[in-house]
Amino acid sequence: MAENVIGTDISPPDLRAKITGRARYAEDFRAEGMVFAKLLLSPMPHARVRSVDTSAAEAMEGVLGILRAEELPVPGGGLREAALTDEPKYEGEPILAVAAVDETTAAAAVEAIRVDFEPLPFVLDPLESLREDGPDAHVDGNISAGRGELGSLKWPASVFEEAGADRLPMGEAPTEWAIGDIDAGFAEADVVVEETIVHQSVTHHPMEPRSCMAYWQNGKLFLHGSTQSTERTRGGVARMAGVEPDDVVFIGEYCGGGFGSKISGSPIMAVPAVLSRKIGRPVMLRITRYEENYIGRARAGFQGWAKMGFRADGRMTALDLYLVQDSGPFGASDVFTAATVATASYQPENMRFRGVAILTNTPPRSAQRAPGGAQIVAMLEPLVDKAARELDVDRLEIRKINAPGHDGWLGPQQGGFTSAYVREALDLGGELFNWEEKSQLSGQRNGTKVTGVGMGLSPFTAGSAGRDGLLVIRPDGKLHVHQGIGNLGTHSIADTARPAADVLDLSWDQVEIVWGDTSKHLPFSTVQAGSQTTHAHTRANHAAGTAMLGLLQELAARELGGSPTDYRVADGRVFRAGNRAAGMDFAEAARRAIAIGGKFSGQEVPEELNDATKAAVAGLAGEGLIAAARDNYSRGGSVYTWVATFAQVELDVETGEVEIIDLASTTDCGTVMHPRSLAAQTNGGVFQGIGMAKGQRWVFDPKWGIPFTKRFYTARPPGILDVPLSPRFAAVDEPDPHTPVGAKGIGEPPVGAGEAAYVCAVADAMGGLCLCRTPLTADMILAELEGRPRPYGLLETHV
Amino acid sequence: MAVMRDMIPPFELYQPTEVEDAVRLIRQHGDKGWVLAGGLDTFDWFKDRIKRPEAVIDLVGVEELRGISAGADGGLEIGAMTSLTDVAENADVMGRYPLLAEAAGLVATPQIRNQGTLGGNIVQDTRCWYYRSGWPCYRAGGNVCYAATSQSMNREHCIMGASRCVAVSPSDTAPALVALDAEMVVAGTSGERTFAAADFFIGPDIDIERMTVLKPGDLLARIVLPAPWEGARWYFEKIRDRKSWDFSLVSVASSLRVEGGMIQDARIVVNSVAPYPVRLRAVESAIRGRAPSEDTGQMAGEIAVEGARTLRHNDYKVALMRNLVKRSIRDAA
Amino acid sequence: MEFLRRALNPWGENVPIGVAWDLIWAAVIIGAVFVVVHALLVPKKLPAGEIDEGEAKGLPDRIQRHKPGARGFHWTMSATMFALLITAFFPVIGIQFPWVTIHWIAGVLLILTVLYHIYHVFAKQDVRNMWIGGRDVKEGALGLQAALRRPVKRPRAGKYPVDQKMFHHAATLATLGAVVTGVLMMFRVDNFLWARNEYMFSDATWGWIYVIHGISGIALIFLVIAHVYFAIRPEKRWMTWSMINGWITRDRYLENHDPERWSVPEAGGAGDVEGSAAGGGTGQPALSDKA
Known about the structure:
- The complex is a heterotrimer.
- Chain A is of the alpha+beta class.
- Chain A folds into three domains: 26-120 and 226-244 and 251-287, Aldehyde Oxidoreductase, domain 3 (Alpha-Beta Complex), CATH 3.90.1170; 301-463 and 637-786, Aldehyde oxidase/xanthine dehydrogenase, molybdopterin binding domain (Aldehyde Oxidoreductase, domain 4, 2-Layer Sandwich), CATH 3.30.365.10; 466-630, Aldehyde oxidase/xanthine dehydrogenase, molybdopterin binding domain (Aldehyde Oxidoreductase, domain 4, 2-Layer Sandwich), CATH 3.30.365.
- In chain A, a hairpin with a 2-residue loop joins strand 10 (212-217) and strand 11 (220-224).
- In chain A, helix 11 (373-391) packs parallel to helix 22 (749-765) and helix 20 packs across helix 22 (749-765).
- In chain B, helix 11 (281-287) packs antiparallel against helix 12 (294-304) and helix 12 (294-304) packs antiparallel against helix 13 (316-330).
- Chain B has helices at residues 19-29, 42-47, 84-89, 91-96, 98-105, 110-115, 118-123, 129-132, 173-179, 197-200, 281-287, 294-304, 316-330; strands at residues 12-14, 33-36, 55-58, 68-70, 76-79, 183-188, 191-196, 219-225, 233-239, 250-259, 262-271, 278-279.
- The mean pLDDT of chain B is 96.
- Helices cover 29% and strands 20% of the residues of chain B.
- Chain B has 13 helices and twelve strands.
- Chain B is globular.
- By secondary structure, chain C is mainly α.
- Chain C has one domain: Fumarate Reductase Cytochrome B subunit (Up-down Bundle), CATH 1.20.950.20.
- Helix content of chain C is 55%, strand content 6%.
- In chain C, the strands form two sheets. A two-stranded antiparallel ribbon of chain C has the order 1-2. In chain C, strands 3-4 form a two-stranded antiparallel ribbon.
- Chain C is elongated and about 75 Å long.
- Residues 267-291 of chain C have low confidence and may be disordered.
- Chains in contact: A-B, A-C, B-C.
- The interface between A and B is large, with 54 and 41 residues.
């Protein structure tokens, strides 16, 4: 028997290439006659192009063409973003692109172009736009009114006056929902806590900027790009280029990080796609770090207010939440997710949520690793601590009291979860971190350093269902797992293939992963976002593996006699039960499948498959034994993963500096697929969250609307020295009963857990004082400790 | 004319191997030339196409500018092109000038310290992000300080020594060298000139476009350290937002000569609070004859921040500077 | 040659930021050329004026031209002007020192002095004395011919010679240009009155303010060169001395001034010559009028 590969550490097939540098990312590709493009970016946060004079640029030797916004097959407008625009909504939005024989020429040509911009009013702070006379991000309004339309939302001055400087103004909210009776909830409460809280917007900063290269051959577009989801990027690229998906070959084998900013490619991919068609040469657009800061997406920030009521026993009776979201110029949906995520932490007996999403002239938002979730967890967890202190309930205990069990519910619809081993994860974390002892260190002073301990519990969605799996056993005898998902560094292309190997009892070295190129016949997949992939594609590949098992048994019965149920499959052979010799190996099976044809080699496919999968199977037909299957397994509720992170910090009261001494995280993410990778994913997310809380910044000059944190050293994502060398990790490892493999996703929930653990630990070191904002930098802490004026207003953003 | 960033424009590259050739090339090109050491400051400017010299004189091949050797009177001489790693890990520096070794070792990251030079770290330009964004501020020859308005984001900017411009000196080694009474030897065609480290750095009141006495055509050749005080106590601390690849919010360097439990002489230097490293002479004389205690430190800190003038977002620097000066006396070892 | 320094503002808009510093040298060169040409062409001695003994009758030997207060003001203003020009331009040409504080404090002194002068001129004196009328034109034409060695009768001035008036007006324009823009620029310097506000005007407006300030300053370089030159010219030195010791001789008075246009009290009078403090021959009447 082959060793069960689920739950063991493996080396993913792309690892060696990445470490040795052989891996080719989008900007490493070359095509015959390839030229380079450069972008001209808007210098103003909101403007209109009055005129463009490209004559000097066009006269330059080596300049091959210029692409303007109106030449895009799908131009932008209103809330629809396009690669280029004549009405930029943020400083840095691309206006046009120049192609030239090399980048030096293209850059010089861009500099030689004169663009006459008409500056328009702009806004960075949502609250400013909500004022009656405040500026709007778009000429036509400041909110999305649905269906791509713009609307306007203004609050009367009295709303701001009532709130004063230190409390969130709360006017009319377009989104509002409630569970139970919020007033009754507070009436029942023994302790009520309330805070105004700011969570910053931060850029994604993946290591690989979204460079892309495109060329056309016989009417087909070939595009090399950086994406999180290969199969689901093709359609978007086709739309941008104005062609059918069948006429697009998208290649992206490696992706140097996305964090939600490259879910299905990027709008900028339209530039090389359309420009290369225009000039008849392959076009490479290398996006620089500076440009990535602008077009590379960002997390939506919140200005919020929360009020919580607790009974003496620690149970949350009421949660009243008001969030104002900085949606960037084209919108974001974090604010709606946020409130739902809060219910997955606390199961409040009564709750009210009000939300406002305001457009601003800052770079576009998109999902960023736990969009809405990380923010709300980091915002609310310190309030839970505050209540626990007042109630004299242990902080770990109060989370256990409120955490959902398997009968828990989610969001305003109050639907159920597939599983929720949250208390188990909290208990495991308490042990791993040694909470009982460590929490006693709280406030202990050693010289100028004060110890703080804190924890954060962070839920996030972690799965989806209904995708397809596609397996081929070729005459080489190997199992080829076709993966339509992307390869953004999470190992999911390998890990989600394991169930197929497991079902077939096949050793891992007999498995080949096919990925990263839509011409390689990839099945319909999830977008690799929302931490869905592990869940969705362990299911899909489990289904495909099961289908392959059936096909092998059927083939053996047909070829060797007997009934399919007489046959077993293991170690790359299908054989009669009890007699290994009576059977055939996979290579033989593949050859016979090709000879027989029909359903064995892809000439017939199940009707229920997605069209993309059918097309993929059709492309592979006749190349081996082919099994394609749809994931029809039960759903059983919302799939959620919880991560609990515990942090011990030392705060230097003379400098405001915080050092993280110890860090431990645990999770309920169902069955552990790949322990080493799971720990890496979790710790990485925890660090990312700590970065947001501790010092990563997105600073704009308010007068000019221009950001300064355009590069790594000014944006300050955390470095390896900012976290403990050996963070600890453990998983509950209880299978989710509603999915065949039992695995749920892990990508997103660690971010909020790390962030919350950090802010809670810092508050703990400050005697329970919550500064209630991120980033929480040394200057803010020191000013507070020294009783000096606050460096920033309580509601100030982009600091 | 549209703005283009992140793309180095072409230039003529010169790679002399002798100091005199380097000096001649530097003179020859004047303000159209650019002296390249490790490139950590340079390439940011070049990439953003804000500084566009016609000629770049790369000093990497000038062996004479590299290395650490014994100086006169028991001191030490460090070539300006010596890498920060070599400074931080040199046995003589570590043994006799741990203040400098520590300061050099806290610069940025290991890679940057391998590539970056002591000279480059000393003469690097300010990191004010308004200035580095290519905005036409005073320092860039314009007529405004964008960092000192009522709306500016100036958490990193100065609390003293401002004159129109409020940028700060970013160097980690500069305060250490001032505290060590180092001398800067500047090469030129007419021979060498020597400046005390404290006089090498200039404020915007004197020249708003430069941070040191070096003018186009000048070359910092080496740094001369006098023999350290017998039994001196040292302190260096750099406060920054993250522990690698970051400039200081405030840094402090001190050297104390303590005899019989009393401070006999002291050098206390603070950086990133002003456009130049600030030697706190008033503090130095106030603590003479006192024990290096918490109380002395407290008093020193209070004196140090007298006259500080804060901007919109950098009030915390007053407390931070006061506390670091306190520590530099209390915790010197 | 560029007359303006321009830059791209943070939004990439091309805005002026000041006057081209090369104009400093232009002003110096023009000043030097003027001095050399004038020195070569114009005789250092004018034909002796005729002194009408009748007019001299009853006049004191020494006629007060500048009261001590007026002289004090002249020299205060000279000092502030020199301080302003030195602090403005020496750093630009490479002589570096901390200049900003001296510059704005000198500027404030200059403003106060100018304000006082304006107040005095309008409240206590007849502004018409400084107007250039028909007689001044005639006087100027004669003066010019005399200077060019034409055989004409040496003209006599009223209270102020016409060249002084012209100089005064040029200097007034330049000084007011510098003063008005300087006051606005004070809003960009932290001082004892207010916190700086760099965004009071748009950057283009600020740019023009700097341009005007620069042009005024550079014009003053030329004016000061000419002023100093005339002050040391032999035939004008009597006026320079009068700015030091306050008086001129009766002969100088009669030689150069028309008693009909500038009457002085007779000997034994109070000696307080109403409106007598023409600003010497030194081209800076605005700074040295009667206190």
